[in-house]
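Review this:
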Amino acid sequence: VVFYNEKSEYSKSLKDEFIKNVPSESYDLSNPNFNAAKIIKSLQESKSKVSVLVLLADTTTLDNALEVAKYSGGKYQLLAGDDIYTPKTLAAWKNFQNSNKPTSEIKIAVPWHIGLYRQTEFVQKSQQLWRGDINWLTAMSYDATRALITGLQQKPSRTG
């Protein structure tokens, strides 16, 4: 089952690609009448063969996505897009675990994570320059800038 934000082109495109390859039900997290508890209860009562919940939330629908995770009660595998990787999500998981209620693990797709690159020169120099941790946006911006610089060095013209 896919949970997404109908008002987000990014979320909708992820949902469309997902259900194209894995036929799924989908629910709009941005629906003003969205009720995670009711949906999860309905899935459990239907005796459907649902085993995975995909959370394609963004910052505006994060609370509803976290409600889905909360009510899933450890019965489903949870997958999520990168927009759900926030301090709020980490805090919610800590609260879920401290509540002694069954909680599923969540797998979040992220394009880059500082933990894998902490010892690289790029990360160390960036932290020194910015006086703090960097994220995947910083890394991707660096890569894009390096690509532009390389292109300009090879053919420094508008058409080049």
